């Protein structure tokens, strides 16, 4: 069983409400429900979904995942490009880390091209839309 924490960072609570041309039409609740359903059908183990607009709260949840979760799927939002604190917290987590970006950050503004989190991630998914979260779960299930 792979217990998985799905973490979403700032502004991702607005999914489906603004900028559908970039982030799609699904709401965060839709994405979280699809992740829960897929994890169950893959026999992956329980998923816990959380979203915060606050860097420190994301750090707290990553710390709490130490010893309690086997994997973290994280879309750090704009903190990807700025947060050493989230990178440090992930570096203290022993399990697998998959970084997800809904958009292809490399095809966007230059300030989005670098993610601090990618230095720790076992895998990085960008540009698959919200399907990226499901691809992350399939990857984790395949690894067992
Ligand atoms: O492509 C991604 O998933 C991002 O992590 C999304 C972040 C952005 O800062 C990163 O560069 C790439 C922004 C999330 C904002 O989400 C919204 C969704 C709907 C409406 C408004 C914002």
What does this structure look like?
There is one protein chain. With 144 residues, the protein is an alpha/beta fold. 35% of the residues lie in helices and 17% in strands. A 5-stranded parallel β-sheet has the order 2-1-3-4-5, with helices on one face. Helix 4 links the parallel strand 3 (71-75) and strand 4 (96-101). Helix 2 runs parallel beside helix 5 (131-143) and helix 3 runs parallel beside helix 4. The protein is globular, with a radius of gyration of 14 Å. 35% of the residues are buried. Residues 11-12, 14-15, 17-19, 23, 75, 77-78, 80, 101-103, 105, 112 line the site of ligand CA2.
Query: What structural class do the secondary elements suggest?
Result: alpha/beta
How many beta-strand segments?
Answer: 5
The helix-strand sequence is EHHEHEHEEH
Biggest sheet details: 5 strands, parallel
Mean pLDDT across residues: 97
Bound ligands: ligand CA2
| Weakly predicted, low-confidence segments | none
**What strand order characterises the main sheet?**
2-1-3-4-5
Q: Helicity level, as a percent range?
A: 25-40%
Q: In angstroms, what is the radius of gyration?
A: 14 Å
Global morphology: globular
Beta-strand percentage range: 15-25%
């Amino acid at each position: 069983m792979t217990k998985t924490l799905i973490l979403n960072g700032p502004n991702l609570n607005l999914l489906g409400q603004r900028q559908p041309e970039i982030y799609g039409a699904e709401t965060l609740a839709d994405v979280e429900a699809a992740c829960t359903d897929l994890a169950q059908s893959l026999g992956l183990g329980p998923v816990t979904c959380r979203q915060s607009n606050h860097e420190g709260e994301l750090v707290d949840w990553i710390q709490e995942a130490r010893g309690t979760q086997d994997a973290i799927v994280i879309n750090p939002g704009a903190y990807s490009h700025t947060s050493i604190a989230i990178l440090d917290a992930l570096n203290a987590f022993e399990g697998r880390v998959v970084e997800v970006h809904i958009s292809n950050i490399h095809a966007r503004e230059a300030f989005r091209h670098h993610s601090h989190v990618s230095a720790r991630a076992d895998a990085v998914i960008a540009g698959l839309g919200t399907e990226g979260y499901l691809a992350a779960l399939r990857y984790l299930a395949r690894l067992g």
